[in-house]
Amino acid sequence: MLEISNLVKRYGHDEAVLKGLDLTVEGNSVVAIVGASGAGKSTMLRCINRLVEPTSGSIKLNGNELVKLRGAALRRARRKIGMVFQGFNLIDRLTVMENVLAGRLGYVSLYQAISRRYPPADIERAFSLMERVGIAHYANKRADELSGGERQRVGVVRALMQEPEVLLADEPTASLDPRTSEQIMILLQSLASELSLPVLINIHNVSQAKTYTERIVGLRHGKMIFDGAPSDFNQDALDAIYGGIEAPEEEVAEVPPTAEGVSHDQA
């Protein structure tokens, strides 16, 4: 369970970016975080994994208070927070397998990390997860030789290699074409169910948020002004979140779950 209470983030003396957010996410919920640029969506995710330091408030992951952690305790806690990035954050010159195994860096010794001598169980799990998302045949291929969708799948598997207790996805489809972005959303939705993993997705595409998540949280100017089911996310909610400005909804190609790259086994 992820519990956020009265979360505030302020940079210097400027107006707070996050203004007392409260959010609880349980089980295998897939939650979309929507809002205009500057609403605080990315800041909220980065406060959770402590890439950004909260100004005040509480963030608990399965009862463990994250805000007060420092040093080794913080590094241990971060192992349980998977992160999928918009820009993939892969090391291009390394192979897919090497990038995936980077998800175990928090668990192995410095010698193992430098020499890339990972335990056999880690390698076996890496192959299993890569097979699950359809990239096992790219194991020895350099990351910079992959397409955007393939690179994002590598990023997802790397995060899962951490054996996370929560998965954060910061605009995971923004760099992808409409067809591929739908496939990634289907994948995240399926993995949440299979692994009983709560997933928070910061996303601009409202149509995808309504289609592939179970809950939508809307932010505006650092405040939460909507928290409910996609079926309740109506025009009034859109106007409240985006201030009457049309929400960004990319033109989405219809992609069935059995589209290329996402079979029934991979979806």
TrEMBL record:
Transmembrane segments: none annotated. GO terms for molecular function: ABC-type phosphonate transporter activity; ATP binding; ATP hydrolysis activity. GO terms for cellular component: plasma membrane. It comes from the Bacteria. It comes from Halomonas salipaludis. Coiled coil: none annotated. Residues 2-246 form the ABC transporter domain. It is a peripheral membrane protein. This is Phosphonate ABC transporter ATP-binding protein. InterPro entries: AAA+_ATPase, ABC_transporter-like_ATP-bd, ABC_transporter-like_CS, ABC_transpr_PhnC, MetN_ABC_transporter-like, P-loop_NTPase. SUPFAM superfamilies: P-loop containing nucleoside triphosphate hydrolases. PROSITE patterns: ABC_TRANSPORTER_1, ABC_TRANSPORTER_2. Pfam families: ABC_tran. The keyword Transport applies. CDD domains: ABC_PhnC_transporter. Keywords: ATP-binding, Cell membrane, Membrane, Nucleotide-binding, Translocase, Transport. It is found in: Cell inner membrane.
